[in-house]
Amino acid sequence: MAKDNITEIIELCQTLDRLAFYTYEKFSNAAEEAGARSFWRSMASEERFHVKFWLELQNVAKKNQLPHVFDSPAEVLLDLKKSTVKIKKLFKNLENSKRKGDAYMLAWRLEFVMLHPAFLMLFNAVKSLPLKSNPGPSYKMHINRFISGFNRYGRVTPELELLGETLQFLWDENNTLSDLATKDGLTGLLNRRSFTGIARQFLYLGERNRSNAGIFMIDIDNFKMVNDRHGHAAGDEVLKKVASVIQGSCRKSDLAARFGGEEFVIFFPDVQPAALLKIGEKLRAAVEKTSASGISVTVSIGAAQEKLSKVSDQTLVELIKKADENLYAAKKAGKNRVVA
Ligand code: GH3
Ligand code: MG
Ligand code: MG
After folding, report:
1. C-alpha dihedral over 292, 284, 127, 184, to 10 degrees?
2. Does the C-beta of 261 come closer than 6 Å to ligand 1?
3. pLDDT at residue 129 above 50?
4. pLDDT for res 271
5. Is 123 part of a structural domain of the chain?
6. Which atom of ligand 1 approaches the CA of 234 most closely?
């Protein structure tokens, strides 16, 4: 049921972005000012890119490989359908309209759809999928550009001026909310919830390619002592520093997250079996070399890996469990070491 909704959501998004492409091209041709003309033209070409992205995503969704990011896909779909009706009406009215602001009204409607928090969640989640046309931050840039173009050329009535400001406000707010939902506030790494969702999808993808997936459970050594000696704020600085070393040691396709307290996790979708221990040792040494506000810090790492064949929702749980056992062994053996 939910899967069907998602496929339908993506289809509708694609339809809407296609409509946006035609609309913006039309606006570009009709614009009097050179600035407005090039603004609409660049909007149109970005929409063409978005259409490609939705097409690719549609294929991913069909294979059931899309992260489950929508808490209530039926509601998102309903909202989307309602917007589509309104957009089509505006589009029709525009044919007979001579009012300059009407074009901006329609454009605003088109972009407003993407302000649904669900889409930011989706964009954040697919960032880590190996898609060819992954829009990454380009969707955000698109909205940013739209808002500034709108505020520059579209403030032709007081109502549109207010809309421009509202749009900016909503957009900022949504970005904040989406970050809060997917990222850890202190370190900026993924939080546990979004990590789990994305890593699971990677495992299903990996099953098809028989990849070798790996995981690190990383725990800061004697961290309680850091807090006790230097205070909680200094402890937070150490956490941030370790997080940035972890992030720096990852490739773009690896997933790093704060798993909880002073514990981190890295997921490697495809790693050479012999390389994992070396990567772990390098990370361990890199942490040992850094210090935050003069406080030295070390980590213990438990690693686990598995050649993917029969993946289920339990696979991630099992990998984490194995890595956790190795982490425990690393602590027991004296800390500041990697056990694989
Ligand atoms: P071990 O080497 O065995 O891992 O010992 P440890 O002291 O690191 O582990 P323990 O689990 O005893 O203590 C973890 C500490 O981490 C306790 C907790 O107060 C602290 N902590 C958890 N989250 C945060 C945080 O967000 N900020 C700060 N400053 N401290 C935190
Ligand atoms: Mg711990
Ligand atoms: Mg610890």
Report:
1. -40
2. yes
3. yes
4. 94
5. yes
6. 29
**DSSP calls for 178-197:** HHHHHB-TTT-SBPHHHHHH
What average pLDDT does range 221-243 have in this prediction? Answer: 97
Provide the residue type at 71 as one letter: D
Residues 208 and 175 in one domain: no
The string of pLDDT tens digits covering residues 266-315 is 999 999 999 999 999 999 999 999 988 899 999 999 999 999 999 998 99
Residue nearest to atom 31 of ligand 1 (CA): 261
Catalytic residue among 161, 262, 318, 325: 262
Query: Whose C-alpha lies nearest to ligand 1, atom 5?
Result: 222
Nearest CA to ligand 1 atom 22: 261
CA of 298 to the centre of ligand 3 (A): 9
Residue 187 maps to a domain: no
User: Based on the domain organization, do 281 and 304 belong to the same domain?
Assistant: yes
Assess whether 143 and 215 both reside in one domain. Answer: no
Task: Categorize the per-residue pLDDT at 240 as very low, low, confident or very high, splitting at 50, 70 and 90.
Answer: very high
Query: Are the C-beta atoms of residues 92 and 84 closer than 8 Å to each other?
Result: no
- 46 part of the active site: no
Tell if the pTM clears 0.85, that is, is over it: no
Number of domains in the chain: 2
Q: Would you say residue 105 has pLDDT above 80?
A: yes
The ligand 1 atom nearest the CA atom of 335: 2
CA distance 92 to 96: 8
Domain that holds residue 295: 192-339
Structure-block tokens of residue 300: 């213990």
